[in-house]
Amino acid sequence: MTSGNDGTSPAASALPDPWRDAAQSQLHDGETALAWLPIDLGPGFDFRDGLLLLTGQRLLYCGHTGAEWQSWPLCPGLELRARDHAGIGTLSLHDTDRRLAIWRHTLRSGNAAHILTTEFERQVRWLTQPPPSSVPAEDEETTLPAGTTPQPEPPTTWALLRLWRFARPYRLPLLAGFVLTLVSTAASLVAPYLTMPLMDEVLIPFQNGSPLRWDLVHRYLGALLAAAILAWCLGWGRTYILARVSERIGADLRTATYAHLQKLPLQYYGGKRTGDLMARIGTESDRICLFLSLHLLDFATDMLVLLMTAAILFSINPWLAVVTLLPLPLIIWLIHLVRDRLRHGFEKVDRVWAELTNVLADTIPGIRVVKAFAQEEREIRRFRAANDRNLAINDRVNRIWALFSPSVTLLTEAGLLVVWVFGIWLVAHDQITVGVLTAFLTYISRFYVRLDSMSRIVSHTQKAAVGAKRIFDILDHVSTVPEPPRPVPIEQVQGRIQLRKVGFRYGNRKVLRDLDLDIAPGELIGLVGHSGSGKSTLINLICRFYDVSQGAILLDGVDIRRHAIADYRRHIGLVLQEPFLFFGTIAENIAYGRPDASRQEIIAAARAAHAHEFILRLPHGYDSLVGERGQALSGGERQRISIARALLIDPPILILDEATASVDTATEKEIQKALDNLVKGRSTLCIAHRLSTLHQADRLVVLEQGSIVETGTHEELLARKGAYHALYQAQAQDQGLVTGSLT
Amino acid sequence: MSDTPESSLIDPEPHPAAALGSAPLPPLSRDPHGQLLLHPVDQAPIVIVPVRAFPLSAAEDDISLLGPDGAEVGWVARLGALPPESRTLIRDELAARTHTPVIERILGISSRATPSQWQVETDGGLTTLTLKAEEDIRRLPDGALLIADAHGLSFLVPQVSRLDTASKRLLDHFL
What we know:
The complex is a heterodimer of chains A (743) and B (175).
Chain A: H1 10-13, H2 17-26, E1 33-41, E2 47-55, E3 58-62, E4 69-73, E5 79-85, E6 88-94, E7 99-106, H3 112-128, H4 136-142, H5 158-161, H6 164-167, H7 171-188, H8 190-207, H9 214-263, H10 266-270, H11 274-316, H12 318-325, H13 327-363, H14 367-372, H15 376-428, H16 434-455, H17 457-476, E8 497-506, E9 509-519, E10 524-528, H18 535-542, E11 550-555, E12 558-559, H19 565-569, E13 572-575, E14 584-585, H20 586-590, H21 599-608, H22 612-617, E15 625-626, H23 635-648, E16 653-657, H24 665-679, E17 683-687, E18 699-704, E19 707-712, H25 714-720, H26 723-734, H27 739-742
Parallel strand pairs in A: 10-17, 10-18, 13-16, 16-17
Antiparallel strand pairs in A: 1-2, 2-3, 3-4, 5-6, 6-7, 8-9, 8-11, 11-12, 14-15, 18-19
Helix pairs in contact in A: 7-9, 7-11, 8-9, 8-16, 9-11, 9-17, 11-12, 11-16, 11-17, 13-15, 13-16, 15-16, 21-23, 23-24, 25-26
Chain B: E1 7-9, E2 28-30, E3 36-38, E4 46-52, E5 61-66, E6 72-78, H1 84-97, E7 103-109, E8 116-122, E9 125-131, E10 137-139, E11 145-148, E12 154-157, H2 165-172
Antiparallel strand pairs in B: 1-6, 2-3, 3-4, 4-5, 5-6, 7-8, 8-9, 10-11, 11-12
């Protein structure tokens, strides 16, 4: 997999800049860097920038740039041991007698230590035995970006620009909305303009003794009314169009995020809290939507008003315009200052609120535990404590908040006062008419009202940007279980599953190693082992919830990674320990894997799963609602529904993951009968904690620490007196049974 | 499903998965106690209770006949395919055991918050129902509403749009 003609491996070409030349100069002819690890901690845990470099012949170390290089030629018996604890990784080099060297590094370099040790092991192994001609899966891992995990970036306002992807389909309505905004804003500015001639040509001459000119009164008042109605119409159209568009953008965003989320592998869900994901799709998209439809629109309108007002004022009287507009930036700045204080307080309120929610999220799902241990009082105290903190912080915020609104009024009044003073001075010096001053005051008082909301745009933008960032976090996540570019269609499934040297690790922890297993079509395999031995992981791999790290899983001779994921999973029936029923009718739940199933098929599946009769006893039969808020069903009943669900899709491969673990033995018998119907003629993998449920398995596979230690039938394994025998004995003793009476 | 018989007798063998016997449904009768009796050939009559498998989505199809111990003894895939006498007997029995009043008008509600007492006019006359919580109103796929009374009786609103304006306005508070 080496890429370049110059012979440098991808790992070496990815060396950090200061090292590339220094490392290259150390290498002999024909020697290539295979893996590297930044050694960023010294012996006394001081930070430094060293480098550990592995080539096909040697292990090289340099303490810091410019320092002397040390090197150890690779020889059989050499061993590189890696471990990590509390964020610090330790690598030590040993020969058969003693430790040769020890290095420490932070885990900033992610996977690099793992890649280095694996590569090291392989190189040392190849010293004694020649490398196999092809090891496709293992070769791949050296091409993994050996680098550092990317630093999370703070959200910037730029995240909002990415929303354009969702806004683009609505370009035309957006443009229409913008034009309407322009025109309606202009229309709303006509009214103050008309006060000018109304004063100067009608009212003041009348006060000075001339007769009232009714024709002018009619004309101006009529124009005022017309402008008001026009502004109303246009404003309505603008708000309606833009709100519609932003609502649609929000909806598209939600659907896109949810659709993407559904496609992400289980691994992604493992690291995320449900509440957080739900909040991202619900609250954040709504916040963005609100920002677009309300805050951004208001701000744009305000800016337009400001510009147009300024233009009009300057055209009437530049001097007065300057005096009028001058205090504006100052006022905005002062408002912003007060807001900043407030925002700090509001953030605190948000955090305390989250704390309250956490108490609820903890105790409501766990209410059985709370009650069983009679801890209601303590939970109430916990809630009250959080609530009291909420109260205290709110009190503090309200003290500033109460001051805020009057302060804004005071500031705007002060601004108006300046205009009055200068205006009266100008009128006194015959520079302007009373009408002009009135018009100015009308314009500016309209405008001052909006200052407060304008000053909020900063925090609104920040909040929306955070929301956008959190949503794009999901959208940018690439699936670790990729769809093949040219999927091989699945036609008739025989059900032969072959595991070829399968290895898997979570991060640096190896969960499965070198597993080889052939499952014949129709064979029933029982998986046995202590918890943590890798049973569930194996099943997750066969379901392709995760992809293998090494080796391959073949279905009827084809690597499962070459099939489209959904196409492949359609042929697998899965019955889990905790049957999950969705909110809906029983019929819908049974037909979950095949929504087009007829009623007859649903009933037939329920009959085979021994669920038919208890379903008939429910008040609405198959139409009864189950799942959250639905009919209360017992664990055994729920399990039988989930068995019916697996039966209905008639899968050639069946996986039972502790299907009977959570029910009592009487129910287990009932479920077992249902399962017997289910496993007939299908390749079945069955995990069961109670070994007695696995007696009829064709073969038992005993796993220990990620490897297969024994295979055989129940009798064979008992006779062998190995790991299975030990497990069996332990369980038999627990149940107070003699081994002989069980077989 | 063309290979499924329209009605059948369930084989009392312990293997219900394959239990859809192909024998047609034996004749039915009503005994002096008002119970329905099934008369299998060469066997003593069995007291049966008909139960709809899909009472909401398919009231006329998929009816199970349960024996005295709750075990299924017979199956009617389509009521219409039965002989008229049996059909009438089953239909009467079903009607006697289950009743879903249809709400024609909502006359008044005691409060907009639940629990709420509703005065309703149904196809069976005036009555009161108590709605415990909003989620007791269930939307059926065909647009109908099924309203569960606090005491377990279900009321049906076949089509909200068919209600008069006043009823719709009252109902809207809870949807």
